[in-house]
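Q: ZIP family zinc transporter, please. Structure only.
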Amino acid sequence: MSEVLLGSILSAMSTGAGALLILFMRGTLTHRLRDNLLAFTAGIMMAASLLSLIPESLASGGYIQLVVGIFFGVLILTLLEKNIPHIDIDHAIKGIEFDEKALLIITAITLHNIPEGLSVGVSYASDTEGTGNLIAFAIGLQNAPEGLLVALFLVNQRISKFKAFIVATLTGAIEIITALLGFYLTSYIGFLVSYGLAFAAGAMLFIVYKELIPESHGDGNERTSTYSFIVGLLFMILLLNM
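A: Structure for ZIP family zinc transporter:
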């Protein structure tokens, strides 16, 4: 219990760690750095899904459970993606009041973090030691640049840097609750473990292919982003084999 709580807190607070950079930035985040960070994170999450979550789902259940879990992971992310707005720092609408655009974005990010928290919690319910920590690490890395982007957006809406940091940090707090929910559900209802691991894999693969890779390739930095993706992949493989 203490391990999943600590892991979920660290993963969730990574959003704040990323947002913390806004307090020290004088300009904006360069396209190249942002794209490379997103691609590196994509490599981390791809390796975690293919080399940890999917094999463990197959081992604890079977192919049918894997397919069903991945299907629901993708379905939930698809529904969220269709029904909540997407952050676009460069095309942020200027002059819209905080209580309209900014609150919509805050709500969107908070909802996006729900399946990520579930992924962390389910991973801690796995029989394989260390899986929870690895997935919490992977999700945490994804949360850091996300937190920075949220803070940047809020600053663009004329919110003070400190308030932007606080709000961006709080958007990650939902992951603590959903991680504990995922952990308890799969711990006490054993047959859900295989489905849960596959759900986490499906959600992460959706984020990688639908969000992170396209966003890292949209500003002419495809080559360096590709290198960053491979480095992230190899880095996670190293962690999995330590």
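A: Brief note, in case it's useful. Confidence is low (pLDDT under 50) at residues 89-99.
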